[in-house]
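Objective 1b. Sequence-to-structure analysis of Aspartate aminotransferase.
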Amino acid sequence: SFSSKYITQLPPDPLFGLKARYVEDPRTDKIDLGIGAYRDNNGKPWILPSVKLAENLLQNSKDYNHEYLPISGLKQFTQAAAKVILGEDSKAIKEDRLVSIQSLSGTGALHVVSRFLKDFYKNDSNPESLPTIYLSQPTWANHIQIFNFSGLKTAAYPYWDNATKSLDLDGFLKSIENAPTGSVFLLHATAHNPTGLDPKPEQWKKILRAIDENGHLPLFDSAYQGFSSGSLSKDSWAVREAVDGDYKFPILICQSFAKNVGMYGERVGAVHLILPEHDEALNKAAFSQLSKIIRAEISNPPSYGAKIVSLILNTPELKKQWEQDLITMSTRIGQMRLKLRDELVKLGTPGTWNHIVEQQGMFSFTGLTPVQVERCEKEHGVYLVGSGRISVAGLNEGNYKRVAKAFDEVVR
Ligand code: PLP
C-alpha cells in the first residue's frame, strides 16, 4: 500500500525552495541571486538574439512541424554540438572515435551517463564491482542524487580550499591516486559550480595525467561553455586537452545548452563518448546501448530546442550572432563582479573581496556563512544559496549597491 510509513515527506529542494520563498516575499526591493540563470541589466530573462533569429527561420520554414525525433535525437544537432565542445578539427571526430546522443539537457545527460557507467564501465580485474563517482567538494548539489538514483556510490575529492579561496590541487591529486582503479572523476569543464574556480592549464594537465596514470575515467560536465571567457574554444580548453592530449582513457562529456543559449526550459543537451582508439564494433555497440537507455526512459528527446540550436550552430551568421551573445552575457557578468567588489571595498566591508573578480562563470562563492546568508534574506531581502554562492547574473546597475550594503551589514 501507499503509506506514510514508506513515503516520507522530503524538505523542498534547497535551490527551488529558495526561489519559492523569493516569489512569496512581498518586499518590492527583494533581490534574487539564487538560481543560475542569466538576467539582463533590468533583472529580466534574456532571449538571445541568435535564438530569436533561429526561431524565426524555423517557424517560417516549410518543414516546420512537431514530429518525433529519432531515439538518438537530431543528428545535425548532436554532430554540431560535438564540434562546439571538441573543436571543428577534433582528431576524435576525424578518427571516428566519437559516439553522440541527444539528452534532456545536462541533467538528462548525467542521468543517461550514470546508467551507462553502471551497466557498462567495468574494472577488468573485478567486473562485478561498480565504479565510484568522485565529485568535487563542493559541487552542484544535484550531482550526488543523480548518481545515487542509478545505484552508484559517490565520493568527494578536495577542491576548494576555504582558507586560501583557491584550488586544493595536492588534495585533489592525492584523492586521484588513492581512488580504486576504474573510478570516475567528474570534472566541471569550465565555470565550476558553485565556486567559480577553475584549475589553470598547468593544473589541468596534472589532474588529467593523474587520472590517466591511475586508470580512471574523466567525466566532463559542461554546463557553462562560453560563460567564463566569452569564447567557446577557451572555455573548452580542458576538454580539448583531455581529448587531443597524450592520454589513454575514454572520456565522457555531458553537454548542456540550457545556459549558453538561454533555453533553460527547452532541455537541449547531449552525451558524447570518446573512445581512446577507433573501434567500429565498440562504437556501434555503445551507440545502441545509449539509444536503449533513451528509448526506455524518454522514448525520444524533445525536438524544438534541438532544432533551434542546430540552426544556430549550422548557419554561419547565426553562429556568429551566438558568439556575440556569449560575449554580451559574459561581459555583463564580469562588470557586475567588478562593481560588487569595488562597492564592498568602498564600504570598508571586513574581509577580502578580490575572489569575486578572480572567480569566473555565472557564480561567485562569496565566503558568507550560512548564518550571514540567512540574515541577508530575512533582513535585506537578498536571496542567495546557503553555501554563500551568488549567481552574479542576478546583479545589475540597479541592485548591486544594495547587495553590497547587505553583505556589509551581515559580516560586521
Ligand atoms: N551541471 C551543472 C554543474 C549545473 O550547474 C547544471 C545546472 O545548473 C547542470 C549540470 C544541468 O543543467 P540543465 O539540466 O538545466 O542542463
